Amino acid sequence: MSLSMTKDANPSTAAVAKKSLSHFAIGKVLAVLIGITTLLLLVRSLSRDDYGVYITLFAAFEILQLAASPGAYAIAFRYLPELRPAGGGVGLQALVHRVTAYRIGTLVLCGAALYIAAPALADLAGAAYTTNVVRLFALMLCFEGTARFIDVQFESLLQQGRAQASALLRNGSKLVGLLLVGGAGQHEVSLEMWLSIEVATSALGAVVSTGLLLHYGSKRGREAVAQTLHMPAMARQLRFSVPTYFSQVLYLLTGTEMVKLLVSRLLGVQAIAAFGFASALSATIQKYLPSYLLIGWVRPLFISARSGGRSTADLVNLAGTVIKINVLMLAPITTALLVAGEPLLALLSGGRMTDGIGYLYFFVFLLFIQSIRAVISLLGFTMEIGSGGLVATVVSVVGIALGVAGYPSFGVWSLCGGLVVSELSWGAVMAGYLKASGMSFRLPLFSLAKFAAAIALSAATLHALGIERLASGGLLGLCCALAAAVAVCLALCAALRPFSSDERSLINKLLPVKVFVW
């Protein structure tokens, strides 16, 4: 995260990173507004059955879009950041073109197979799924999958301006389409209509993203005319990307997306609606928290620093700082939900998904664990540990197995417990592989305990003052209760000082105003 950490790799990296961070911050502020507005309008615009079907389709999308292109994400995450500062302009351009063509080709093959088999798949899935819905899903897979992958490449190249422009165009146009068709949540929208909007806007986004990528590639090519071709050996790429790919797919097949599919199959689309909405809210928190999103900005800096000879101890310390930033942002959100979760969920869902409050508490708790996993995964990519990630993921399958085994007795909560076991077992095994590679990873346990104390004390104090009754007294009361929860939690965190003085100084250097006091 430190800008100075990359100076050994390339003297211009610090300037590029800081410019990228500014684009990142501006883009994500807008993305927060668009993402949350779309989520809240969609749950009001689709019927509960259609929303349940959409949640199931989206879970299948997350699995298929990754599985369709073996190794592509691993290569983009690991080798594009390495080539960007290493003077490999020609090699970088060649790798970008090859991996993009490969990604588009495999997505088209997967989408075509789904499109052709749509009637049979619709019959297999059940009455709620039509042939047109499956075919629209196949088209969305091709277009959205392409656009997302190009965004990932831009992030790996520290081109956050292009990444944010592409994502904002795509997601902003979806919101506009939903507003026009649904009358700002006043009219019910059919699932086919919403998927048609997704297909059209994703296609637009894919075209624009590809154009931005070609422009970037031609610019780098002109700058690198005199450079020789430099690219990591194919054997090295395969040695890392193949096991990483299998671990990524296996993780999705035994993670939250698979649990959604299981809940939909076992309990039906009515049950998955509340479960899926709670999951979508937590995913929105995860996706749009600035601290969590910093991982996409930090990854190329870590890899550049590692290539430049930075010590593993420095990287571990920086990883601990990233974890603390994640938890700092999650702590007031958790406090707010503990104080006013039920009225907030009723407001957000328009009263439709109030039975999902228990699931929401669970998913926010899971976010704490997943944020740690994300940082450990970042270190694994930095150290180029591919086989270790695969072994850790195989071991973590025990979690979903235990969840399925306990389902007859404990229902959906057994599957939820399985997710927790899966995340913890993966982290433990991966930490062992990091240690074997020379990186002794350790959690900042004392600081995490301070955050836990701040959450517990804040929630207990506000409950003692009766703030939860204020939250149930209308919109104004709810807003006041949420503001009080956030303010009290942040104030207690500031008093407990979970960050060291060096960390505060480092973070303040990245901010336009030195306001970081935690």
Average residue pLDDT: 82
Q: Structural class from helices and strands? A: mainly alpha
Report the biggest beta sheet as strand number plus sense, adding barrel if it closes: none
| Low-confidence residue ranges | 1-13
Shape assignment: globular
Portion in strands: under 5%
Short note summarizing the structure:
Its main location: membrane. Helix content is 81%, strand content 0%.
Question: Can you describe what's shown?
Answer:
- It is a single chain.
- The protein has 518 residues and is mainly α.
- It has a domain of 247 residues.
- The chain is 81% helix and 0% strand.
- It is built from 21 helices and no strands.
- Helix 2 packs across helix 6.
- The protein starts with 12 loop residues before the first helix and ends in an 8-residue tail after the last helix.
- InterPro entries: Poly_Biosynth_Transport.
- It is found in: Cell membrane.
- Its main location: membrane.
- It is a multi-pass membrane protein.
- This is Lipopolysaccharide biosynthesis protein.
Give structural attributes.
21 helices; transmembrane; mainly alpha; 518 residues; disordered N terminus; Lipopolysaccharide biosynthesis protein
